[in-house]
Amino acid sequence: MGIVLKGNVCYSQTINKLRTVENCYLVCEGKYLLGVFKTLPMLYKEFPLADYGDCLIIPGLCDLHVHAPQFAFRGLGMDMELLDWLNTYTFPEESKYIEIDYANKAYGIFTEALKRSATTRACIFATLHTPATMLLMEKLEKSGIVSMVGKVGMDRNCPDILRQVSAEAAYLSTKAWIEDSLDKFERTTPIITPRFIPTCSDELMRGFKKLQAQYSLPVQSHLSENIGEVEWVSELCPSSASYADAYEQFGLFGSEGAPTVMAHCVYCNEKDDELLQKNGVYVAHCPQSNINLASGIAPVRRYLKKGINTGLGSDVAGGCHLSILRAMSDAVGASKLYWRLISEEYEPLTLNEAFYLGTTGGGSFFGKVGKFEPGYEFDALVIDDSTIPTTNPLTLEERLARVIYCSNDSHIIAKYVRGEKLNNEPDK
Amino acid sequence: MGIVLKGNVCYSQTINKLRTVENCYLVCEGKYLLGVFKTLPMLYKEFPLADYGDCLIIPGLCDLHVHAPQFAFRGLGMDMELLDWLNTYTFPEESKYIEIDYANKAYGIFTEALKRSATTRACIFATLHTPATMLLMEKLEKSGIVSMVGKVGMDRNCPDILRQVSAEAAYLSTKAWIEDSLDKFERTTPIITPRFIPTCSDELMRGFKKLQAQYSLPVQSHLSENIGEVEWVSELCPSSASYADAYEQFGLFGSEGAPTVMAHCVYCNEKDDELLQKNGVYVAHCPQSNINLASGIAPVRRYLKKGINTGLGSDVAGGCHLSILRAMSDAVGASKLYWRLISEEYEPLTLNEAFYLGTTGGGSFFGKVGKFEPGYEFDALVIDDSTIPTTNPLTLEERLARVIYCSNDSHIIAKYVRGEKLNNEPDK
Question: Rounded to a whole number, what is the distance in Å from the CA of B99 to chain A's nearest CA?
Fold first, then answer.
């Protein structure tokens, strides 16, 4: 048996084409959308109908980059740049996840917030601690959100308390964690997660490649976020032609069988662009974090012109907000400043393009996700925008713009993932 | 009889010094603060006490630049630059305020939102329509917020429907409006408001100067928001040495007896800076609007180094959000990109500096406003941040940072202006 939702639909058919349909029926069976209909076909008259009246229904949003253990301190330390911020806030905080009680409390806060947010799919960094990472996966599984979660690898250039004792130990513990988690959940799967080149020895990277290949796993990491970081990587990997090439040399930059996503990509050079494009690697564009950490602005227009896969990330807690709606407006704003201050060659993103990035752009990392087209997995948000008052009749496209710029989590009145409505009661 | 508030206090003593006092008493008599006390002096034991427990109490925030008639369409047209956006959205919308019923509905929406926001003082643009502007002033007066409201002057370079028929007609209607409104309200006063040089003839500017001088009124307008606008002004005023000088030549750039505030100041040159500084003119920094309209980034650090008065503005609907807390985090973000992309000579604003700008920085435009020091008018926000959960004990300064980055209007549980608690029931 399926379900039917009635309301006003907006989604990106392509990056240049927003489709809006007033007062229509979304028909879903199992995990999948069967179609969008102006008149409900006889065939589906028996399906239970959720009538959302004049609400907007949009695809669920995809967060391609978020750090679960950083959520509890979001908004702090924002007067620092990346490397200082990591050492002062992030690493001390992440070291606390060795205690399962602490992780239970902090990941509870994160998961509840994610449930109430606009996100339906996420690529998530945990810490290096296996029990805490498994606990996070359990909580996420219960939340109904679909996620890929990474036990983080670090065996150099970090505080002792967060350094894995050896590359081999890291390899073995990661392998054990993968075997435990790989088939344990319906919605929650492991993803290979070297933190970034500076914290991962060559041997650890080779170990991660071995695991990636053995289990056909996706990969997530960071690329070219900050000028100092890029210089550091070129010193650490003298044989690499670029930062992306450093990952590529280890076979962790767009492997067979599963996609790779790289957060930030603020300072990619031509060689990096070429590898991103050739290998189908995803850019997780995190504009708010790039501003908060004074990193700069990623050249998203350039990536789009080159046909590089691009989606959005909140990068909490470099970003302070889980909302991918906020990431959309931040992406537009950042692209305007890129155009104004860096290069008029790259015109600003339109709001519709940013909406695409947060839905289909990132959604394709998870398969057929992010659009309301037949055969796509059905992830949706129902948004009541009646409390964003106006005096003029608005088109659906205009209402969507106001939702992106002016709404918050309280406007989301229902959330569906893979065809199932999420329970929005807090998990006890 | 006075009142006493109990809670955790944060305010900027100077731009470089945040004062935080845990668990203290704010004592207020009439409009004014008598002091902040760790122990309540005997003298005030009889004053009624509002115990806000573990809440934060911060000064009310000052919005130095907001367009009331644009609130109803905030979030629309953000893919345009200033001059196109004015012609496509703003001017057609503002022309509707000739109808008092429309104004009643739209200004009702604006005033209710302002009441719920963190703003306690505001410099507000209305439209050129006198009845609608008076209606807005009545609504604002009832709201309890203290504001300066401008009937806007425009007699050239705008659609016919918004063009005052002559400079003389504009002068006369503005004079009549000033006389009607000047002593009518306790909290709401007129401010001389030429929209900006491009829409005001020399004769209109001279008329405004006459009114400014006759009634000792403050002045608000726009300065150097956009590159095309700056070029246009230099063509329109060939005898002026700079955009600021064009206002100065009319005597409307920091007059005796009342202050002037200029929104934006993104592209000021040395001559502009000199006049801003010399005349004590306020910069209303509106970072979100400057990003949304792809204008650029104002050099706030430069203004601070030169001792130029600076506060924050929401610039709704160039900005989409009334929140001056949001303006603080946007100001910090914009200054980071200024430092990274334009000039490393000007270090980013710290969050505490941005907090100063949104409280004392803008507050001084209204007199002794924006700090919790004896003799200051008592404007305050009581903020319950317990629903921004964390796992670690936080200092008051850290809690304030999270309020700035992560709170929304729903966290404001009480608002005081000039010693009175605002009623937060909607106006019927």
Answer: 13
